[in-house]
Amino acid sequence: MHLIVVRHLWVLRRGRPWGLLVDGIFEPFLYLLSIGIGVGQLVVAGPETSRYAAFVAPALLATAAMNSAVNETTGSFWFRVRFEKVYDAIVTTPMRVGDIAAGEIAASVLRSGLSSTCFLAVITALGMVRSWWALLAVPAAVLVAFAFSAAGLAVATLMRDFHHHQYLQLCMLPMFLFATTFFPLSLYPRPLQPVVAALPLYQSIELIRGLTTGALGAGTLAAVAYLAAMGGAGWWVAHRRLGRMLLT
Amino acid sequence: MAIRAFRYWLLRYRRTWRGTVVISVANPLLFLVAIGSGLGQIVAPDTRALGGVSYLAFFAPGILAAAAMQNGLVESAFPVSWGRRPGGSYPVAVATPLEPSDLLHGHALFMAVRVTMSAAAFLAVMVALGAARSAMVLLALPAAALTAMAFALPAAAWAVTLSDVEPVGRVYKWVVMPLYLFSGTFFAVAQLPEALRPVVYVTPLWHGVDLCRSLSLGTATWAGSLGHVAYLTAMGAAGYLLARRNYRRHLHA
């Protein structure tokens, strides 16, 4: 399993590793400036402006962890398994399918966790973190990355054609916009609220927002359980399907 | 002859339209609903910075222009750089009696049709949501199409010189996204620090945003609108001339 991670790091060496971090945090940072601070000025006028930014920042952290994880396992993994046939060669070595699945998830979590940590450092420096519980936001972001990496890997085994990526975007974009990233759950009509609360990104945002603002509760534990279950299920499906795809 | 090139893209579009709907129509509409209607609910009622209108009315024409820019680039930069690779549709077509300029004209016509269609769909939803304040909003359709082409033509001129699609993704991330988020689309330019405002005023997307917004809110003035139109037309024209030269150089090598 660790050999897959080593392979990822080896491939990365040819690129510029620092570019990876800039890549990972650039987009959420732009959203933070534009919507968090720009639109935030309109939401609460006066000296309270930073309150809205502190609301948006942890949601963007969760979103960044999700995007990085999903892009890694669906985008580049999908390309490697369907076109480059990297794993067809690997399964003929002593490595087994379980090693490939675990290694891919681990590499994706490593990458996503690194950029989340950097983003957390940025928002902490900007004063958008309100609680010492935020120290736990790093393992929380790793858990989010694990849940979405495993789910992404499972989805990647189902995708056959390029345009399936468009359908995936059709799930990810509404999730980004509606999973209480920019406005609270209470603004939704009551019948819609359970639907929003069932989204995996909503649970991730709840977890990380609870930690950075210090508003913890039973919901936090539920979110941890939800994400762990999602990651476990994704891993299991990915392992099974990958085994069939690689004919072992 | 340019019509033949146009018909090629039309035929292709009949096979692939489903995928394009997601990025060109669903994407701006989701932003409109989530940010305009959702986030708009918690924007303070005192909206002097927005010119005294609701957040939805402020935001909708802005995202119309921003989406037009995005669609212009999606219809231009990606397909052009993909089409000019060895074995792509461009090198194959120039081996026939079609001239590089025919390819450019046909493809540009197709881009114009596509961006107008997407803008019309968005505009219809925007009017249905009650985000438009003036009958002049109808003029926002040509305004959005002009904005899109002001980006699409220079992008085509650039993309035809590429040997790989990868730089397109980089430009998208480092240039297009910042323009999208900071050209007065999501919040008013007046909210920015004094020193930064002139930077926004020279960026092309701001002209498209302000043009569409003043038409939608009914606050358009002749001087302002003609200024915006002149800027965008000049940009599109420069892009066209450059594209014609680059198409000839890179396809008739």
TrEMBL record, chain A:
Gene Ontology MF, one: ABC-type transporter activity
Domain of life assignment: Bacteria
Topology in the lipid bilayer: Multi-pass membrane protein
Keyword vocabulary terms for this entry: Antibiotic resistance, Cell membrane, Membrane, Transmembrane, Transmembrane helix, Transport
Keyword Ribonucleoprotein: no
Residue ranges of every copy of the ABC transmembrane type-2 domain listed in the record: 19-245
Compartments (UniProt record): Cell membrane; Membrane
GO biological process, one term: response to antibiotic
Transmembrane segments: 20-46, 52-70, 105-126, 132-155, 167-187, 207-238
Cellular component, GO, one term: ATP-binding cassette (ABC) transporter complex
Family: Belongs to the ABC-2 integral membrane protein family.
Protein name as it appears in the record: Transport permease protein
Organism the protein comes from: Phytohabitans houttuyneae
Automatic annotation (TrEMBL), chain B:
Domain ABC transmembrane type-2: 19-250
Alphabetical keyword list: Antibiotic resistance, Cell membrane, Membrane, Transmembrane, Transmembrane helix, Transport
Transmembrane segments: 21-43, 49-69, 108-129, 135-159, 171-192, 222-243
GO biological process: response to antibiotic
Membrane topology annotation: Multi-pass membrane protein
Record flagged with keyword Transmembrane helix: yes
GO molecular function list: ABC-type transporter activity
Highest taxon listed in the record's lineage: Bacteria
GO cellular component: ATP-binding cassette (ABC) transporter complex
Compartments it resides in: Cell membrane; Membrane
Pfam short name (any one): ABC2_membrane
Principal location class: membrane
PANTHER family: NODULATION PROTEIN J
Family per record: Belongs to the ABC-2 integral membrane protein family.
Protein's recorded name: Transport permease protein
Species in which this protein is naturally found: Phytohabitans houttuyneae
